[in-house]
Amino acid sequence: MGNPATDKTVKDYPRVVTMEQIQARVQPKKATPFFVDKLDRLVTQIEHLMNLPSISTTQRYILARDQAYFKTIF
After folding, report:
1. Dist. CA 50–CA 45, nearest whole Å
2. Around Cβ 63, how many Cβ atoms within 10 Å?
3. In the 8-state DSSP scheme, what is residue 67?
4. Phi-psi bin for 2: left (phi > 0), alpha (psi -120 to 50), beta?
């Protein structure tokens, strides 16, 4: 009874994943940096797509949601 994040299995998880990757000869990859100029291009593209008359309301909602997410995160 306590904090579940302190459980031994939670602490062992990163070690187990690393061992599996070593056995499978998988090299962990670093994330590609995402710079502000790329964000600007992405937001511009989303705005362009949102202004197309041929997209559905659902697609427009998804684009608006994604745009809000990116603007909030960055």
Report:
1. 9
2. 19
3. H
4. left
3-state helix, strand, coil in the chain (%, to 5): 70, 0, 30
Count of CB atoms situated within 10 Å of the CB of 66: 15
pLDDT, tens digit, 9 for 90 and up, residues 23-67: 888 777 777 787 888 888 999 999 999 999 999 999 999 999 999
Question: Please, how many CA atoms are within 13 Å of residue 48, restricted to the half-sphere of its CB?
Answer: 6
**Coil, helix or strand for 5?**
helix
Q: Which residue is it, tokens 């937001």?
A: 43
Half-sphere exposure (CA, 13 Å, Cβ side) for 28?
A: 9
